[in-house]
Each structure stands twice: as structure tokens, then as C-alpha cells.
Amino acid sequence: MFYLFTLQLQNMNHMKARPTALILILFLCSTVALIAQKNNQLAAYNTLENGMIVLGTAALTNIGVSSYQLISTDSHKDFHTMNIAWNGVNLVLAGLGLRGNKKMQLKKIAGEDLKTYVRKQRNIVWINAGVDIGYVALGLWRRDKNVDQGNAIMYNGILLFAFDAIFGLALNSKYKKPFSQKFTFNFVPNGISAIYSLN
């Protein structure tokens, strides 16, 4: 579905006004495209950063709650010990993810390189979601030997699956056609035509 807009310049009285108007229109259009591209890049980096912040915050919360439970009660010690260890790894992964994202921002990668980077991160997240299902199965198996450890593995597997599914969908949304790519500009005999794609 397209919306077509044609700017007619034939009624301008002065010949000098025509090139000036064309230059002004092209400048404005290129500025809009550049702003849209920068916003799209910023959104991709923000999504990656926010995902790691959520993972790190969840890890810190789990470590804090399980540490408190270990100190204050004698029940389910194996669950809380396993939970602390598991979320310690998650916290390290979140820190490494934030560091990697910051490095990519400092390199100022954009365009296809940024798409490739986000696509790679998305694929890793989807693979992790599959592994998370394996963690749940492992937890079920481990319950026969140690109920608390099995429950801790299942609990973290389910949480990570939910996180990876939502994070993967958020990264996938970065592949929608950006605003700057929906516009097409063409010169016509009496002006400029602008086509905006609604797809």
C-alpha cells in the first residue's frame, strides 16, 4: 500500500526559486531519513542494553533473596545454594553483555553491520531458549536424586526461558523496515514525487 505525493513547482514565478525549493526539500528529506536511521540504531542498542539490565537485576534479586533465606532458615538450603550459584553465572553473563554492547556502541557500527550484530545476538537468545527447555528437563530428572536442586534448576530454566522468549521477540522487532526506508523520492518533470510505503 503506497501513498503518493507530488509537489508541483510550475507555478513559481522566479526561476531561481525552483532550484532553491528542490535543494530545501532534498535537505529536509535527507535530514528526516538520517534522524530515523539514528533513532533505529539507538533503539537496537537500547534493546540489547535493557535486556542485559533485566537479566542482571533478576540475578541480583535471586541472589539477595536466596542469601537471606540461607541465613535465616534451615529449610531448602540446597535450593538456595543452587539458586545463588546459577544466578551468579547469570550476573556475570549480564555484565559481559553490557560490556560487549558498550564496545559496539563505541565502534559506532551502523547499517548492515548493526543488523548483523543484532541478528547474531537474537540467534544466540533463541538457542538459549531451546537450552532453557533442556534445563527444565534436567531439573525434572534431578528431582529424583535431590528435590531442592531439581526445583532450583527447573525454576531457573523456566525464568530464563521466559526472559529469552521475550528478549528474542524484542530483538526480532528491530528488523521491521525503518522509517527512512519507507520513503522513496523521484524527480518528475514538474517537481518531486514522494512515495511512502505503508508495508
Task: Give a written overview of the molecule.
This protein has 199 residues and is mostly helical. The chain has one domain (2-197). The chain is 73% helix and 10% strand. The chain is built from four helices and three strands. A three-stranded antiparallel β-sheet has the order 1-3-2, with no helix packed on it. Strand 2 and strand 3 form a beta hairpin. The termini are close together. The model is unreliable at 1-17 and 27-38 (pLDDT under 50).
Give the beta-strand count. Answer: 3
Q: Taking strands numbered 1, 2, ... along the chain, how are they ordered across the largest sheet?
A: 1-3-2
Shape category: elongated
Termini separation comes to 6 Å
SSE string: EHHHHEE
How many separate domains make up the residues? 1
Largest sheet: 3 strands, antiparallel
- How much helicity do the residues have? over 70%
**Rg (C-alpha, Å):** 26 Å
Oligomer: single chain
Q: Please tally the helical runs, counting DSSP H or I stretches of 4 or more residues.
A: 4
Low-pLDDT regions: 1-17, 27-38
Helix/strand structural class: mainly alpha
Strand content: 5-15%
**Whole-number average pLDDT?**
76
